[in-house]
């Protein structure tokens, strides 16, 4: 297949947005895959701030970073991504060039603990306020469960209403796949 699948396309967008020395956000640390990837993009002079509400996710991310000797390039917070302005030092907020959200539930975790549209939208609003111009927010939307469908609808309504002089919004996904395939919403700050 020549079309990029969802996760490779998400990474391609992050690669376009991040240069060595930048600050990046992993809004849903999960098992640490994106956090580790972001540390490779920001390099030794940049930094990644990762958030998750579950201790299990923070521990898994910390372990992955340690195994790959990348723990010095990331700071982990066991709290909601809507708290990012309180966690990322004010002097670094303008250096945020990218953020990624993998929405839904923690793979291998409790499927009752899910991301919510309200906190995700608050986090996006915070990012659009402080991040660098041309910074990119990547939302990977997993909506194949009841709460995921609710969050999907809230997000689509919100991003569709963003003024085009504030942000460019992209919707990328496969339309003819079964079982509610994930899709990407990418927001580029103007």
Could you explain the architecture of this structure?
By secondary structure, this protein is α/β, with parallel strands linked by helices. It is 36% helix and 21% strand. The chain has helices at residues 6-17, 33-42, 55-67, 84-87, 117-130, 146-160; strands spanning 23-26, 47-51, 74-77, 96-102, 136-141, 167-173, 183-189. It has a 7-stranded mixed sheet, sandwiched between helices. α2 links the parallel β1 (23-26) and β2. α5 (117-130) packs parallel to α6. The longest helix has 15 residues, at 146-160. The chain starts with 5 loop residues before the first helix and ends with a strand.
Strands, helices and their partners?
Blueprint: H1 6-17, E1 23-26, H2 33-42, E2 47-51, H3 55-67, E3 74-77, H4 84-87, E4 96-102, H5 117-130, E5 136-141, H6 146-160, E6 167-173, E7 183-189
Parallel strand pairs: 1-2, 1-4, 2-3, 4-5
Antiparallel strand pairs: 5-7, 6-7
């Amino acid at each position: 297949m020549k079309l990029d699948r969802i996760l490779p396309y998400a990474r391609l967008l992050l690669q376009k947005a991040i240069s060595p020395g930048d600050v990046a956000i992993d809004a849903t640390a999960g098992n640490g895959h994106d956090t580790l990837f972001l540390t490779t993009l920001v390099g030794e002079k940049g930094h990644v701030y990762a958030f998750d509400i579950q201790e299990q996710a923070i521990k898994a991310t910390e372990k992955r970073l340690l195994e790959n000797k990348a723990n010095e390039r990331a700071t982990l917070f066991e709290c909601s991504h809507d708290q990012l302005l309180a966690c990322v030092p004010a002097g670094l907020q303008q250096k945020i060039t990218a953020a990624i959200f993998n929405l839904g539930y923690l793979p291998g975790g409790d499927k009752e603990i899910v991301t919510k549209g309200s906190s995700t939208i608050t986090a996006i609003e915070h990012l659009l306020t402080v991040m660098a111009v041309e910074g990119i927010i990547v939302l990977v939307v997993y909506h194949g469960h009841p709460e995921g469908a609710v969050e999907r609808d809230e997000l689509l309504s919100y991003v569709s209403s963003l003024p085009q002089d504030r942000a460019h919004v992209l919707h990328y996904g496969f339309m003819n796949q079964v079982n509610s395939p994930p899709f990407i919403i990418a927001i580029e700050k103007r």
